[in-house]
Amino acid sequence: MWGMTPPIETDAPADGLLPATRRSLLHRVALGQSQGRAPSLVGAVARDGRLVWSGARGTVEGRTPDAHTQYRIGSITKTFTAVLVLRLRDEGLLDLADPLERHLPGTSVGELTLAQLLAHSSGLRAEPPGDWWERTPGALRPGLSDILGDGAALHPAGRRHHYSNPGFALLGAVVERLRGAPWREVLHREVLAPLSLDRTTYDPAAPHADGWAVHPWADAVLPEPLHDLGAMAPAGQLWSTAADLCRFGAFLLHGDDRVLSADSVREMRTPSAPPEPGDWAGGYGLGTQLARRGRRTLAGHSGSLPGFVACLWTQEEEGLVAVALANATSGPTTGAIAADLVTAVADAEPRLPEPWRPMGSFDRELLELAGPWYWGTNGFGLKLVRDGGVELYPLKGDGRGSRFVPVAEGADGTPSWRGLDGYYAGETLRVVRSPDGSVSHLDLGTFAFTRGPYDPADAVPGGVDPEGWR
Q1: What is the 3-state secondary structure (H, E, C) of the chain?
Q2: Could you tell me if residue 457 is inside a domain?
Q3: What are the pLDDT digits (tens) for 104-144?
Q4: Do residue 93 and residue 178 come from a single domain?
Q5: pTM for this model (two decimals)
């Protein structure tokens, strides 16, 4: 049901996927653990809100881990923080265009907008000053001034994507100030508890994996230190499980009105910053990484802290969520592994299309609008769809197609629609009538769509040469 996150069934049934698909998924996890030289690696896949597969290799405290074993998830935490900020926006307590100074006065970067911080387009440095912050206690950076330091801005705001951990520490501080409570408490109350993410916690809760560094030139391991990140926690503190992250991924696809609407999570997945130079297959939304894998778009986030690497990917069209978690500082490419899990299921078991059904009741007068229209000499088709919407698509080539939803009719009863996607997203499509009440043409963002290509009888902007076609 839209508006409510589908419940994740945490015990995957044996018939969740075809045997060949399950074998392929396990092989990918086994390969990732072996080649990445990780003490353990867990993978999981959910589809349409149901955990359909999980598998693991290696050991945690002498046993094979499962989808309920905790790992530290690093920067996947940023997506949780972004959800909290979007909740504040939807409640009217802030606007993403607001400068930071309005909600967190006294920083040295108060002119940056909340949207720029969410999209990593603020120009802030990547890391806080001082020693490697992920391997040192957060108490060494007690305040925001210790996180920003001098010369925190490296690039002009809004001009390029530059990943910034301090930027999300600032967003966490905004959440704390507007809610009047610590970030971890707000997160538990407003996100973790409503979504039943019982195994997603600030501190590790057994059973959990320990973090290890693997020697690059020997099969030897070294325990990594475990620290509370303090004020940097909103950028990377959390622990979670493959099952919990699959549930969270389902929420990122469909929304849940108790936490964030479907429209708002879709906004999180919408590109907000350009890709980094040389990485045109990637991008960033609002607290969400974007990637292209073949013809498919993935949305989610990767994460790493000393001793752990993690990745969560969602794929909207196939309704898929994939997670990969490992307890090694480096080696396992969890981002590629999770993407491969998505691809393996989508290729082997593509989603069945919904059965076609007639529209049922509709405005019969709109039928006269269906069919071919012309923008200049470019042919388009206009098709009526469910709930009073329409689709406009090029009859050939890759022209400017869009879907439209109905909006309030004009004073004269003339219907109109608002673009949902493509070139005409947000633009208004309206019917223009002649004095006798017949349809003259369609107006779409000032472009006139007529029944014929440059027909003198139609309302063509600029007119038509009186000698006509020749």
Answers
A1: CCCCCCCCCCCCCCCCCCHHHHHHHHHHHHHHHHHHCCCEEEEEEEECCEEEEEEEEECECCECCCCCCEEECHHHHHHHHHHHHHHHHHCCCCCCCCEHHHHCCCCCCCCCEHHHHHCCCCCECCCCCCCCHHHCCHHHCCCHHHHHCCCCECCCCCCCCCCCHHHHHHHHHHHHHHHCCCHHHHHHHHHHCCCCCCCCECCCCCCECCCEEECCCCCCEEECCCCCCHHHHHHCCCEECHHHHHHHHHHHHHCECCCECHHHHHHHCCCCECCCCCCCCEEECCCCEEEEECCEEEEEEEEEECCEEEEEEEECCCCEEEEEEECCCCCCCHHHHHHHHHHHHHHHCCCCCCCCCCCCCCCHHHHHHCEEEEECCEEEEEEECHHHCEEEEECCCCCCCEEEEEECCCCCCCCEEEECCHHHCCCEEEEEECCCCCEEEEEECCEEEECCCCCCCCCCCCCCCCCCCC
A2: no
A3: 999 999 999 999 999 999 999 999 998 999 999 999 999 89
A4: yes
A5: 0.90
